[in-house]
Design brief:
With 113 residues, this protein is of the alpha+beta class. Helix content is 34%, strand content 21%. A hairpin with a 5-residue loop joins strand 1 and strand 2.
Length: 113
């Protein structure tokens, strides 16, 4: 097969698989690094199911063994606030000073804080 024919075949295969990829759900990927305790958002990918998403996340986001744990969450399952709702979600806590650590006095025996 010539290079032009090979290119045409691979382009046809790619275009025929593209609609299937777009039909797969979007997954958000979180990885916990060796140094940290929390999972951090690394990116997104399309996958057919959760196991497929885990395998793809491992291949894409932990190629250099930078993680010890991976979470994948279907994007449609995530509920998030809108930037326009900032005052509704975050400003009510500003009147509760007892929630701020500066409200409390730390005993002198506690030297590491």
């Amino acid at each position: 097969m010539s290079a032009d024919q090979n290119s045409t075949v691979s382009n046809a295969a790619a275009s025929s698989s593209s609609p299937a990829l777009k039909e797969w759900p979007l997954w958000e990927v979180f990885v916990r690094s060796k140094q940290g305790l929390e999972h951090k958002h690394c990116g997104s990918l399309h996958a057919s199911d959760s196991q497929h998403a885990l395998q793809m996340a491992r291949d894409v986001y932990t190629r250099r063994q930078e993680g010890v744990s991976i979470w994948v969450v279907q994007s449609s399952s995530i509920a998030a606030s809108e930037p326009n709702d900032k005052s509704e979600f975050f400003e009510p806590s500003s009147d509760k000073v007892y929630r701020h650590p500066t409200f409390y006095e730390i005993p002198s025996e506690v030297g590491h804080m």
